[in-house]
Specification:
Split_barrel_FMN-bd, Pnp Oxidase, Chain A, 7-stranded antiparallel β-sheet, 41% helix, 164 residues, oxidoreductase activity, 5 helices, membrane, alpha+beta
């Protein structure tokens, strides 16, 4: 009986390691087929992340932007890291993702993080500028997944209503 349980547990651990290895290889090589599968999976996880994203205590922020062609307003959950008065974002899929193309076309967006809303302007930066602002763990994750593009969301000047 116990041997059977150990085999099941070992099989599940092996399956998890294979999945993680495939994820790392897909992200490092930017394999388009693999990235398409991850994007489909993210559509499900993003809905769950949006429940508390941007609120105090959440590890996820929300960037609000407008479609560059449609004019449709969108909200996208993203992970942000402090960089002085600004915010730093990993771009594991590169700078050609739709939400970033929308933000860059508009020249600005609204970022909700920790219960506060900020007007921000995008600036793509490389690892030399970004990595020193990350913890050792986050630098390791960025290197492991081959992240070479980062986004700095610079806070815009204070506007009426107290948002920045």
């Amino acid at each position: 009986m116990w041997v059977w349980i150990l085999w099941v547990v070992a099989g599940l651990v092996a399956l998890g390691l294979v999945w993680f290895g495939a994820l790392v290889v897909t992200m490092r090589t930017k394999n388009q087929r693999g990235l398409a599968i991850i994007r489909r999976f993210n559509r499900v996880t993003n809905r769950a992340a949006m429940r508390d994203a941007g609120e105090s205590g959440s590890s996820t922020a929300v960037i609000r932007h407008v479609g560059r062609k449609s004019g449709t307003p969108y909200s996208t959950p993203i992970g942000v890291y402090p960089k002085g008065d600004d915010f730093l974002v990993y771009l594991p899929y590169g700078p050609a993702v739709d939400w970033l193309r929308n933000v860059r076309a508009a020249g600005s967006a609204e970022l909700r993080v920790a219960g506060q809303t900020h007007h921000v302007a995008p600036q793509i930066v490389g690892p030399d500028e970004a990595l020193p602002h990350l913890s050792a763990r986050d630098r390791l994750v960025a290197r492991l997944f081959g992240v070479t593009d980062f986004l700095v969301l610079e806070r815009a000047p204070v506007v009426s209503g107290g948002t920045t």
